[in-house]
Amino acid sequence: TISNINVIDRPDNCAMVELLGVNLTHIKDLDETRFNWVVMVDSQPSHNALFEKFAVDLVIDHHPDTCSKVPFQDIRPKYGATASMMTEYLKAAKIKPATKLATALILGIKTDTSDFEQQTIIEDIRAFQFIFRHANKHLIRKIEQSELRADYLKYFKKALENKKMHKGKVFLFLGPVVNPDVCVILADFFLKVITVKWSIVAGIHQKKLIIIFRNDGLRKSAGKVAEQGFAGLGSAGGHKSMACA
109 and 80 in contact (C-beta within 8 Å)? Predict the structure, then answer.
């Protein structure tokens, strides 16, 4: 059983789930007593309160280590993508991946490394080279081009009207948003402006303040800024050029 904690409605993720036939069960619909093993991938038990009801047996992740009580852990913070780690498992076990699985892993590597522009090590590149030969390039292109939902366009209008710009930084508060991904999309959008070095976008979703941090990777770590400013109020952190609180 593959389970997710968030509602998946970001267009590229929806396209991936549909086109690759990923069968998902939301965590709230799981009966935790039915399973002998719980494996957490690309996350850790402390990352979300919804994980508290599960006794996690195994964690495979590339985020910094925060879980000391899990029996088996493979946590590699230097890796750009957990999908690279999963690819290494397949390769070590001499398993030829199905086309859809290979396509999903390619998308995972490309997304987490921002097409190798963000944190990347040679192992990520080698994993990409190995898995790419098994993937469907046309599916990759179709999924990656599915960036926007029509109802997201109104937020661009609001963003352009309400943004604050100061010394290479863009600040934006959107108010209520239909999905936190709106904040992510707009934070990435403003970073494309040549003079913008930092992009900080906030919105409210399900009574929670969501803040997305992006920078050009040349300055102070976005992850440290998020953690120092907001870890005392809720979950916060990330990587050098991308973070959230």
Answer: yes
